[in-house]
Amino acid sequence: MTETVGGSAKKTATRNGAGAKNAKLKVERVYTTEGVHPYDEVTWEHRDVVMTNWRDGSVNFEQRGVEFPDFWSVNATNIVTSKYFRGAVGTPQREHSLRQLIDRVVLTYVKAGVEHGYFGTDADAEVFEHELTWMLLHQVFSFNSPVWFNVGTASPQQVSACFILSVDDTMESILNWYREEGLIFKGGSGAGLNLSRIRSSKELLSSGGTASGPVSFMRGADASAGTIKSGGATRRAAKMVVLDVDHPDVEEFIETKAREEDKVRALRDAGFDMDLGGRDIVSVQYQNANNSVRVSDEFMHAYESGGQFGLRARQTGEVIEHVDAKSLFRKLAQAAWECADPGIQYDGTINDWHTTPESGRITASNPCSEYMHLDNSSCNLASLNLMKFLKDDGSFNAELFAKSVELIITAMDISICFADFPTPAIGETTRDFRQLGIGYANLGALLMATGHAYDSEGGRALAASITSLMQAVAYRRSAELAGVVGPYAGYARNAESHQRVIRKHAAANDLIRTLHANDAAVRSAATREWQRCQEVGARHGWRNAQASVLAPTGTIGLMMDCDTTGIEPDLALVKFKKLVGGGSMQIVNQTVPRALSVLGYPDEQVEAIVEYIGEHGHVVDAPGLKPEHYEVFDCAMGDRSIAPMGHVRMMAAVQPFLSGAISKTVNMPETATVEEVEEIYYQGWKLGLKALAIYRDNCKVGQPLSAGKSAKATETKAAEPVVEYRPVRKRLPKKRPSQTVSFTVGGAEGYLHAGSYPDDGLGEIFVKLGKQGSTLAGVMDAFSMSISVGLQYGIPLEFYVSKFQNLRFEPAGMTDDPDVRIATSVLDYLFRRLALDYLPFEKRAQLGIFTADERTAQVAADYSGGDVDLEGLRTSVGSVEPAAPANAPSPAPESKSKPQDVRVGSSTELLELHLGKAADAPLCMTCGTKMRPAGSCYLCEGCGSTSGCS
């Protein structure tokens, strides 16, 4: 915990951050123990990171011997190693340990904090260093990606991912817009701006000619973004273009992308390659930006009353045309229904919650719509992992959460002291107003784990209370920092407005209607914090013009091993998990059993329900699960998907406690109507949102449908007659070859007897474990007979191996087998041994199972630079259900037939198998897996790449 001590603070801040000399931060330990470094409290292990392209098997990235804590997942390890470690791969300068990465960032922050007078003593600085290190090490929170990319390196110390630019009605300004946007794209970030200052195509130039209008200039910016792309990579740049609803060209702007979508359909029907990434898609314009219309309260009132609305000239402000507000709003909804653009931003709400209106209005947002503040500004982000604050008894640890927010806000503010910025104007504005964007991830997992439906009063009450507490502590900490190093430079001019907004936040907190002890306790903590915030702020002002946003948390969400991103619910109940040593497995989300326990189900029933979910992908008709509990397990996609208004209501619950807005797209079914889109946009305004975007399934043509194309083609075919197939048992001959293996697992001794067909292929097993006549021996006999009969009926051995490897229970530990040195259970050992003895190399490689000699040969070849059989040894994901042998009978067809040899590489593709249709998500340009929604962007689970600003 940190607190201020000493005398009163100065009321103004200098440009270099110097402030009061008599007040300093006293930092107290929260997570750490004096005399023990955080690194000494964890167990470290070395891992090999080999990342491949899922489509063609090529190796995208490889670094061996990296060092991570044993509790970090394989996916988090892969993403941090490939994305955030600095230095050329294969050189001594390359980072190889998480310690190096965290030290590079944390020590830079601590040094800047000392230099700029934040800490009272050296001891306070050391405690701050240890606390920040512990939280990052244990995945309690993460800074946004630019911090990990740049801080502590020779590169410019850019810490922000979110930028807002500005453009005026001059050719010089327009060309400068192209230049500044290009520089930001080159650095791997995105930007947004409002084009409403540019004269419309219905107005005259000083020379007497007609102006081109903003839509015309959008073509040039779109071409630039499509050429530069982002960070020199293959994915498109991230940008936002906003136009005010009273601009005379607003109708052309609304229809811009919808008309291009018509062009895509026509070209596709003519035989051109119009899939995303196709060679002919480049002829389509305006595809590199998200478009949003900025609507005013005046316009929305005209819409409600069915009245006329005036479009105004840009230079004089006079009305040059009247339009029917309902008709214009319907065109906005129609275009969004057709192609998901434009989104909508509510200007009245945005500027009503603006802390610095005397310094300028808020006119635009970053590409993902969560950062909204002054033109030519930036915001650095950090997000907390909410699941880290859930106690074993199911209550939310509000006190620990508040102390964590204190530390994070302190670090975020320090970063502005040493940060570099892409343009001088952005640097000046950011240093003057010090915009921060603290947020969180894993809300969907938290709600499920506490037994709350995402679309429920209880779920919204808990989410609102947590967000209110986060905002209250962030602003209270900001006020305390103002007492140490002074308020932001623009505070004196905007003091009254800033105080008004703080009162609005506090008043909204009082309106939260709590339903359970959990959310009531969190709201009570938030109430106390808002009182402290106002008291300290009245004395010192605030250090930061804004404090919070809700970002997509794409890559950093994977870094923290979060099940859900940002404010999103879970994508689906069944996910894909990468395994140590290669391969992957299909798992049910770990929050599901926790939620079932909270709801009162006994362990035996929890196990049965989880098994059912693993097989079917949903909870409908799960054995013993009460129908009234189905809603707790509703997800963003699947058989029980959350209704669109459920997403909007959740956004409305937390919006009053955010300085900025929320990055989120409301998914709507393909059957949704234009009227429903219109109602969603209208309700967003009524409920007090700042921005909203929708996506209707299959509304875009330029999507890589992959398997979905063939699926749709088959829908038009006439139904085939149903033919029933029954499996036939292939018995073993009286005399057959066999082998017996003695083994030891964790000190337990046993024997494995395996019999095979004369023409090769395992046909039976017998396992002796435990004393004869004991319960364990009897269970193993029954288990052996069950597996043997299954093998003889044609169930492939690799299917059994994929199910039983990595199964965890005692006895477990070291074995006496040189090929399988450690086993997580007896069954894990047995089926790994059977795979090594009876499966071909290619199938074992898919499962990540190799002999000691094969592993040695691989390592030797890799380090010597020699050739290695990448087809067999590369890390790849195995089949969800391996194909049966040629002599096995065909399975009976089902109503939703699932391919038996379909390879999947992400949770989205796994979900497609359960749904039987393709999801509208792009393929990752880096590793080829299908991405998943994350806020208003897309995220790749395989390599951590995002389609927007990360």
UniProtKB/TrEMBL annotation:
<dbReference type="InterPro" id="IPR000788">
    <property type="entry name" value="RNR_lg_C"/>
</dbReference>
<dbReference type="InterPro" id="IPR024434">
    <property type="entry name" value="TSCPD_dom"/>
</dbReference>
<feature type="region of interest" description="Disordered">
    <location>
        <begin position="1"/>
        <end position="20"/>
    </location>
</feature>
<dbReference type="InterPro" id="IPR013678">
    <property type="entry name" value="RNR_2_N"/>
</dbReference>
<comment type="similarity">
    <text>Belongs to the ribonucleoside diphosphate reductase class-2 family.</text>
</comment>
<dbReference type="Pfam" id="PF08471">
    <property type="entry name" value="Ribonuc_red_2_N"/>
</dbReference>
<feature type="domain" description="Ribonucleotide reductase large subunit C-terminal">
    <location>
        <begin position="160"/>
        <end position="695"/>
    </location>
</feature>
<feature type="region of interest" description="Disordered">
    <location>
        <begin position="880"/>
        <end position="904"/>
    </location>
</feature>
<dbReference type="GO" id="GO:0071897">
    <property type="term" value="P:DNA biosynthetic process"/>
</dbReference>
<dbReference type="Pfam" id="PF12637">
    <property type="entry name" value="TSCPD"/>
</dbReference>
<comment type="function">
    <text>Catalyzes the reduction of ribonucleotides to deoxyribonucleotides. May function to provide a pool of deoxyribonucleotide precursors for DNA repair during oxygen limitation and/or for immediate growth after restoration of oxygen.</text>
</comment>
<keyword id="KW-0846">Cobalamin</keyword>
<keyword id="KW-0560">Oxidoreductase</keyword>
<dbReference type="InterPro" id="IPR013344">
    <property type="entry name" value="RNR_NrdJ/NrdZ"/>
</dbReference>
<dbReference type="GO" id="GO:0004748">
    <property type="term" value="F:ribonucleoside-diphosphate reductase activity, thioredoxin disulfide as acceptor"/>
</dbReference>
<dbReference type="InterPro" id="IPR050862">
    <property type="entry name" value="RdRp_reductase_class-2"/>
</dbReference>
<keyword id="KW-1015">Disulfide bond</keyword>
<keyword id="KW-0170">Cobalt</keyword>
<dbReference type="Pfam" id="PF02867">
    <property type="entry name" value="Ribonuc_red_lgC"/>
</dbReference>
<dbReference type="GO" id="GO:0050897">
    <property type="term" value="F:cobalt ion binding"/>
</dbReference>
<keyword id="KW-0547">Nucleotide-binding</keyword>
<feature type="domain" description="TSCPD">
    <location>
        <begin position="733"/>
        <end position="837"/>
    </location>
</feature>
<keyword id="KW-0237">DNA synthesis</keyword>
<dbReference type="GO" id="GO:0031419">
    <property type="term" value="F:cobalamin binding"/>
</dbReference>
<protein>
    <recommendedName>
        <fullName>Vitamin B12-dependent ribonucleotide reductase</fullName>
        <ecNumber>1.17.4.1</ecNumber>
    </recommendedName>
</protein>
<dbReference type="GO" id="GO:0000166">
    <property type="term" value="F:nucleotide binding"/>
</dbReference>
<feature type="domain" description="Ribonucleotide reductase class II vitamin B12-dependent N-terminal">
    <location>
        <begin position="49"/>
        <end position="139"/>
    </location>
</feature>
